[in-house]
Design goal:
- The strands form 3 sheets. This protein has a 7-stranded mixed sheet, sandwiched between helices. Strands 7-8 form a two-stranded antiparallel sheet. Strands 10-11 form a two-stranded antiparallel ribbon.
- The longest helix has 18 residues.
- Helix 3 crosses helix 4, helix 5 runs parallel beside helix 9 and helix 6 packs antiparallel against helix 7.
- It is built from 13 helices and 11 strands.
- The chain has 2 domains: 172 residues, Rossmann fold, CATH 3.40.50.1970; 164 residues, Up-down Bundle (Dehydroquinate synthase-like, alpha domain).
- The chain is α/β, with parallel strands linked by helices and 350 residues long.
- Bound molecules: nicotinamide-adenine-dinucleotide (NAD).
Length: 350
């Protein structure tokens, strides 16, 4: 088993990674928390694939549990779902001494984290991510949130899980499209911080290749993200780099409606936009990086072209990193070398 210890602003938690880790969830809960009641938040797909398993393991461990199942998909990530979960927590008499388990992808993790941060002013929660994206990105770093009609993740909180438990076996039931959507965030990490990982992906771009060393890859990505978060939890500077590709990615998602492109697919488009803009503004030194990254993303079945009709500028105006007439935009100077540049909104044209 791989174990990564994170220490963020005096709050420590572990990320555990292995195959079949879920088999030990009962003993892990007892060892870490000495708790006997949990509340599982999951979605309709995850419960159909893995619900029976987690239920029987908790039963066998004499852990009492209730489960809230939300409809799978980004459209559930809203205040109505949160309200419904609060009512369910109340009916299940969940108190601050109990534990919430976020059992699912980034949507479940973001909602469950938000609920955990606000229910009775905060109770402990465990992230059990079941998508690649959630394993390498959303379950690490303590950002929670929901969407409102004005934009994505505009309501949320910084709130740490008390444990992240990654069972690589869970990923086997992911549809290909979801699998590669998560790999987009791995490409992002490689562009930002790890040129060797970029080369590795170039040579291992089939799902079977990636799955062969999945635990190592997940570990590497959790460490890369985790260390950045340790140094800059509240995203004052360095953590902003993790938003590479996201400014435009979010606008694509919002413009086309959540669900048209998967999150990682929208980020893939945003990565290409940022690279092209970087070359245009003379920040990204190597023009051939555009072609190199584009062919990697395409080989991973990820989209690279900005869809026609996307009003990037008006969406950017809602970005959390925007100032009055400028925005902190993340560029890549060279492979593995990111830079944050304040650019005028009027220079973002394509
Ligand atoms: N908090 C953060 O730091 C952070 C970072 C990145 C992304 N996010 C958020 O994460 C969300 C995207 O996450 P996602 O891509 O995991 O989406 P998701 O949670 O919607 O999961 C994708 C799909 O896969 C299904 N699924 C999940 N696990 C499965 C499994 N093991 N087998 C079969 N199907 C499974 C889900 O039901 C869903 O249909 C977005 O809302 C995004 O804003 C948050």
């Amino acid at each position: 088993m791989k174990k990564i210890a994170l220490n963020i602003e005096n709050f420590s938690y572990d990320i555990l990674i292995d195959y079949n880790l879920i088999d030990n969830i009962g003993s892990i809960i007892k060892e870490y928390f000495n708790a006997s009641t949990v509340f599982i938040i999951t979605d309709s797909n995850v419960v159909s694939f893995h619900g029976e398993k987690i239920n029987s393991i908790l039963d066998a461990s004499n852990i009492k549990f209730n489960t809230y199942v939300l409809p799978a998909g980004e459209s559930s990530k809203n205040i109505d779902t949160v309200n419904d979960i609060y009512n369910s927590l109340a009916n299940s008499e969940i108190t601050r001494h109990d534990i919430i388990i976020a059992f699912g992808g980034g949507v479940v993790g973001d909602i469950a984290g938000f609920v955990a941060s606000t229910w009775m002013r905060g109770l402990r929660f465990i992230q059990v991510p079941t998508t690649v994206l959630a394993c390498v990105d959303s379950s690490v770093g303590g950002k929670t949130g929901i969407n409102i009609s004005a934009g994505k993740n505009l309501v949320g909180s910084f709130y740490h899980p008390s444990l992240v438990l990654i069972d690589a076996n869970m990923l086997k039931t992911l549809p290909d499209r979801e699998f590669f959507s998560g790999v987009a965030e791995i490409v992002k990490h490689s562009l930002l911080f790890d040129s060797d990982m970029f080369k590795y992906l170039e040579e291992n771009n089939k799902r079977l290749d990636i799955e062969k060393n999945i635990c190592e890859l997940l570990e590497k990505n959790c460490i890369l993200k985790g260390r950045v978060v340790e140094r800059d939890f509240k995203e004052r500077h360095e953590r902003m780099m993790l938003n590479f590709g996201h400014t435009v990615g979010h606008s694509v998602e919002k413009h086309l409606g959540y669900g048209h492109f998967l999150h990682g697919e929208a980020v893939s488009i945003g990565i290409m936009f940022a690279l092209k803009l970087g070359v245009k503004l003379g920040i990204t030194k190597n023009e051939s990086l555009i072609e190199q990254v584009s062919s990697l993303l395409k080989s991973l079945n990820l989209p690279t072209d900005l869809p026609i009709g996307i009003d990037v500028l008006s969406a950017i105006k809602l970005d959390k990193k925007r100032m009055s007439d400028s925005i902190n935009f993340i560029f890549i100077e060279k492979l593995g070398e990111p830079i944050i540049k304040k650019i005028l909104l009027k220079n973002i044209i394509f």
